[in-house]
Amino acid sequence: MLHLRLIVPTGRTDEVVRLVERSVGATHLVLMPGAALDPAGDVVTCDVAREAVDDVIAALRGLGIDRSGAIAMEDTELTLSAHADRAEKEAPGEGVDAVLWEKLADATHEESTFSATYLAFLSVATMLAACGVMLDNAVLIVGAMAVGPEFGPLAGISTALVRRAPRLVWRSLWTLMGGFAVAMTVTAGFAWLMDSLGLFTTSMIEADRPNTSFIWQPDWMSLVVALLAGIAGTLSLTSAKSGALIGVAISVTTVPAAANAAVAFSYQDLSQTLGSAGQLMANLGGIVLAGTLTLLLQKALWALHLRRTRSA
């Protein structure tokens, strides 16, 4: 169950209460008159089955409660109630299959912010990957991929395309491309510093490096892996399975490819630079394409399921 906390202008409270009472999948309705101070109004709380909460929030936004008051939602990990069991049974579909579009949009909007923290994580991940490719160390590569935060703006682009939100598309695209530009510039400087200290050498960049050479040698399997990762990552976000998202993070070579491109460029190795850039673009494009198609399919299947349920 998901818990909704609403701040409602006093004159709209009866309307909101009736809306919640009529909503399939809603229960545990509580009214606290005059409890809210800023903004002033009444506080209404209720629990809603996951598969029904999107409709309830859409109806509340239709009443303008998000503008005149507030709508807050949180996950209740455990609810022991016969009323809750009955509400979940009455709600159409399975909660795990429902996409919470408002929550997804909010999460991807936050993850697509071009912030100092985002740049720091991406830069550190790229420098760590640079050490991995120069040492031909797969463990460091995996660690760098897990640290990289780039899936956030990639998911933001997919979500924005499905919801037809051009502002979020450009915001996510700017965060993604601008972030990689900064991280790769920092990594090129890092490579220069490591070379001056004798820790990176030309012979290292020219070595065969069998454990990591795939990073600058993209092929059709690179695209296949990116597509599968995009599907898995999107499903992990819509079903709130963060553990699966970690698995996605270590399955694609976006950060290592960016790192190798930066290091190879610093050593004027054009072949590796172009190959790594191709690997990077294949991964980014494949993840966005797969994520967008996955969300469209989830949206279509859920709409079809609701039509069948309501006509039954």
Provide a quick synopsis of the model:
By secondary structure, this protein is of the alpha+beta class. It is built from 14 helices and 4 strands.
Assembly state of the chains shown: single chain
How far apart, in Å, are the first and last alpha carbons? Answer: 24 Å
Q: What is the overall silhouette? A: elongated
**How large is the count of helical segments?**
14
The average pLDDT score comes to 88
> Segments where pLDDT lies below 50 for 5+ residues?
none
Structural class comes to alpha+beta
**Rg estimate, integer Å:** 24 Å
Query: DSSP strand (E) fraction?
Result: 5-15%
The largest pleated sheet is described as:
4 strands, antiparallel
Estimate the helix proportion, in percent: 55-70%
Secondary-structure element order, as H and E? EHEEHHEHHHHHHHHHHH
Q: What's the count of strands?
A: 4
Q: What is the count of distinct domains? A: 2
Keywords:
single chain; 312 residues; alpha+beta; Alpha-Beta Plaits; 2 domains; four-stranded antiparallel beta sheet; 14 helices; 4 strands; 11% strand; elongated
Can you tell me about this structure?
The chain is α+β, with helices and mostly antiparallel strands. It has 2 domains: 2-96, Alpha-Beta Plaits (2-Layer Sandwich), CATH 3.30.70; 103-301. It is 67% helix and 11% strand. The protein contains 14 helices and 4 strands. The chain has helices spanning 13-22, 50-62, 65-68, 82-90, 101-111, 116-135, 138-147, 151-163, 166-196, 202-206, 220-238, 242-249, 254-266, 270-311, and strands at 2-8, 26-37, 40-48, 70-75. Strands 2-3-1-4 form a 4-stranded antiparallel sheet. A hairpin with a 2-residue loop joins β2 (26-37) and β3. α5 crosses α8 and α9 (166-196) packs across α13 (254-266). The radius of gyration is 24 Å and the shape is elongated. The mean pLDDT is 88.
